[in-house]
Amino acid sequence: MSTLLAQLLSDSDQDTLWIADENSKAQLKAGLPFRGTLLSNRWDIAQAAEQAGITALFSDFDLGAVERNFSRIVYPVSKEKAAVHHVINTAAACLHANGELILVGSKNSGIKTYAQKAAQRFGRGKNLQKHGTEYASHNQLNSDATLGALLDDSNYRTLRKLDPLNGLFSKPGLFGWNKVDVGSAQLAQHFSKHLPKTPFNALDLGCGFGYLSIQLAHLNPDAHIVATDNNAAALLACQSNFDASGIKGEVIAGDAGAQIASGSVDVVVCNPPFHQGFQVEGDLTDRFLAEAARALRTDGSALFVVNEFIPLARKAEGLFRDVSLLEKAKGFCVFRLAK
Ligand SMILES: C[S@@+](CC[C@H](N)C(=O)[O-])C[C@H]1O[C@@H](n2cnc3c(N)ncnc32)[C@H](O)[C@@H]1O
Predict the structure, then answer these.
(1) 334 close to 303: Cβ distance less than 8 angstroms
(2) What ranges make up the beta strands (E) of 7-59?
(3) Number of Cβ within a 10 Å radius of residue 33
(4) 44 lines ligand 1 (CB under 6 A)
(5) What average pLDDT does range 235-248 have in this prediction?
(6) Is any ligand 1 atom within 6 A of the Cβ of residue 135?
(7) Cα–Cα distance between 207 and 225 in angstroms, integer?
(8) Is the CB of 286 under 6 A from ligand 1?
(9) What is the rounded distance in angstroms from the CA atom of residue 213 to the CA atom of residue 204?
(10) Domains assigned to the chain
């Protein structure tokens, strides 16, 4: 956990905006005192903040839509360059005159380069301070609010149709945004054999831009599909793909599907997350499995794909009546899990 971040947040007043992606989860869990507002692109983090009594906003880092201005923005830099550049580009939209953006990061986060780029954007000299193994880059707005050139953020906010995704919409800020995941493609090859031929209710757990939902809908256009993800960018892209493809169903924000009614779906499809930002959150596969089992009807089944080194069969024991390995190839394992 970042001690520099903890110190900056504890020292903050109500006029501080904390931009928090998944890397800020440890700070929230530690229950540090924070009196400002939190903005996260992760639904679970926004929820956890609200439960801790912190005012929270959930969006895809949409700083232009924040309805008030702050004297300070504190941002532990994200892993994705496009997201960091987007925040640096748009921070001024919700800063008071003379307000400052503070970027926080350790050496391997790219903080030194970001400090230089933020200084260019804010039209000031670089102000990078070292605190033990961490750095804080301070960037104060000029009193006349003039800004330097925009950084290349890969058009962060723009949804786009991508040829490698067969024309599906996607955008930066979501997992593997510009390619079809090898594991997901492998999983989808098993759909025609293992899915009901009659209309069914499906849950796409951790839907990303909705690749698995689209494959389900191609095979059975009458399927009703609920797609859920924790990530704001994923939800935006997935909703656009549902709309463009006329999929019956809905796209909802959620944490590992916890808000899906128990026993409500016939089929779960899932390529669970493994890496979370700079950390690896060990229990995510377990939570996805447990929520899939809970959401399924008694005769329902789930199709999962995981990296081959994840002991899914062992983790699924006790949750499912039957666990069958359908395929092991290209570093992935595809399983059918019957309730
Ligand atoms: C390996 S990707 C699969 C994406 C998509 N299903 C596909 O096949 O392209 C895992 C997805 O899980 C999402 N995710 C991560 N943590 C989550 C959580 N706690 N609740 C719901 N979704 C989560 C990620 O945002 C990501 O979209």
Answers:
(1) yes
(2) 16-20, 37-40, 55-58
(3) 12
(4) yes
(5) 97
(6) no
(7) 11
(8) no
(9) 6
(10) 3-140 (3.40.50.150), 160-338 (3.40.50.150)
CA–centroid distance, residue 27 to ligand 1 (Å)? 22
Token readout for 147 is 């800004």
How confident is the model over 195-211, as pLDDT tens digits?
998 999 999 999 999 99
- Is residue 171 within 8 Å of residue 157, measured between CB atoms? yes
* C-beta neighbour count of 75 within 10 angstroms: 27
Stretch 46-59: mean pLDDT, rounded?
Answer: 96
- DSSP letters for 258-300: TTSPTT-EEEEEE----EETTEE-TTHHHHHHHHHHHHEEEEE
Mutate to test the pocket of ligand 1, among 184, 189, 229 (most ligand atoms within 8 A of CB): 229
* pTM exceeds cut of 0.85: yes
**Residue 318 neighbours by CB under 8 Å, 6+ apart:** none
**Ligand 1 proximity of 173 Cβ (cutoff 6 Å):** no
pLDDT of residue 275: 59
* Rounded-to-integer distance, Cα 53 and Cα 69, Å: 20
Task: Quickly count: other Cβ atoms within 10 Å of residue 255's Cβ.
Answer: 17
The protein residue with its alpha carbon nearest to ligand 1, atom 2, reads 273
CA of 305 to the centre of ligand 1 (A): 12
229 pocket-lining for ligand 1 (C-beta < 6 Å) = yes
Which amino acid would we find at residue 1?
M
Give residue-wise pLDDT tens across range 64-95: 999 999 999 999 999 999 999 999 999 999 99
